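Example for tutorial group B:
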């Protein structure tokens, strides 16, 4: 279940980053279409939008890292519990064999 959540979170991360990159490209294309000689309000708004999208991308990457870290932590705990159960079971089987 944890592997599935990690895969889903990774997929969502890829989709979000793809859309952010797409939006950045759209803004850059609009800037290029207007030409380099213009430094008007619209160009400044588009430049600011690109910077905002870059910030959003960094926030998503940070959130992705945090989410995956929590899932990895849960996975480690689940593996430890499974190992402890196997050890207890082996110990009980060894005790029954000696009795």
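The residue assignment follows.
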């Amino acid at each position: 279940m944890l592997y599935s959540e990690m895969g889903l979170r990774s997929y969502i991360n890829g989709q979000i980053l793809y859309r952010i990159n797409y939006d950045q490209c759209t803004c850059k294309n609009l800037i290029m279409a207007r030409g380099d000689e213009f430094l008007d309000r619209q160009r400044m708004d588009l430049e600011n939008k690109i910077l905002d999208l870059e910030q959003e991308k960094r926030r998503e990457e940070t959130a992705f890292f945090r989410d995956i870290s929590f899932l990895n932590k849960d996975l480690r705990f689940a593996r430890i519990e499974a190992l402890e159960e196997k050890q207890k079971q082996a110990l009980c089987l060894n005790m029954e064999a000696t009795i």
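The chain is about 90% helix and 0% strand. Compare this with the pattern of hydrophobic and polar residues in the output above.
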